[in-house]
Amino acid sequence: MGDDTATGTSTGGPRVVVRRAIPTEPAVRGSESLFVTEAARQGVRPTRRMLYVGPEPAGDDVAAALRVEPGTEVLARRKMMFADEVPVRVATSYLRLDLFGGTPLADPGFLRPSLQAAIEALGHRFGHAEEHLVARPPSPSETGTLRLDPGEWVVRILRAAYSRDGTPVHVLETVCAATRHVFPIAQVTGADQF
After folding, report:
1. Would you give the distance in Å from CA 122 to the centre of its chain?
2. Which of 75, 77, 91, 144 is deepest in the core (most CB within 10 A)?
3. Coil, strand or helix: which one is 5?
């Protein structure tokens, strides 16, 4: 396979750049899929594939956000996002098993109408979220999964969502191919003054 530096992959496809807004518009956040909605608005063909649903040990950052000990088994829901068939993101939702084990959130496949709606259907109302963004070199598995070329970095976004009573109900880790993303930043009020 020939190297195609325009895509940042070795697939030889066209250059793909998608946007991931920070913060996310409420209408987009509440849609069936944040990625599908954002990408479709940008004129690229979005697709998703569920990679894994099941228990796995929580890493340090995820454990801290979920307020469990590192290594505690949590429910993971991992999916891959593609834009025009180019892998651009891996997103993993982490949920506490004591709250969501044995519920529809542990079922394989995508949840309808959305993961957030399924969480709320179980009696949890979202109160606030915290988002941390870090650019770093990829792990070997991220390099392979996202088909990154040597020297390409990733952007990792860790969003921790808490219920109105402060209970951690959802941690979303999104690992984005850095050369395939733009992160527009807007004021929540819509007044773009920086």
Report:
1. 22
2. 77
3. coil
Query: What are the C-alpha distances in Å from 28 to residues 24, 67, 79?
Result: 7, 28, 18
| 56 within 8 A of 69, measured Cβ to Cβ | no
pLDDT at 192: 52
> Count of CB atoms within 10 A of residue 180's CB?
23
> What are the chain's domains?
18-182 (3.40.1410.10)
In the chain, the N- to C-terminal Cα span, in Å, equals 44
Instruction: Say how far residue 53 (Cα) sits from the centre of its chain.
Output: 14
Q: What is the number of residues in the chain? A: 194
Rounded average pLDDT per 10-residue block, the chain, 194 residues: 37 57 53 67 84 97 97 97 90 96 93 88 91 94 93 93 94 92 65 50
For 126-169, give the DSSP string. Answer: EEEEEEEEEEEPPPHHHHHHTTPPTT--EEEEEEEEEETTS-EE
Structure tokens at 124: 């949890």
Q: Which DSSP state fits 179?
A: G
Q: Which amino acid is at 147?
A: R
Radius of gyration of the chain from Cα atoms? Answer: 17
Q: How far is CA 163 from CA 29, 124, 126, 159, 171, in A?
A: 16, 6, 4, 13, 12
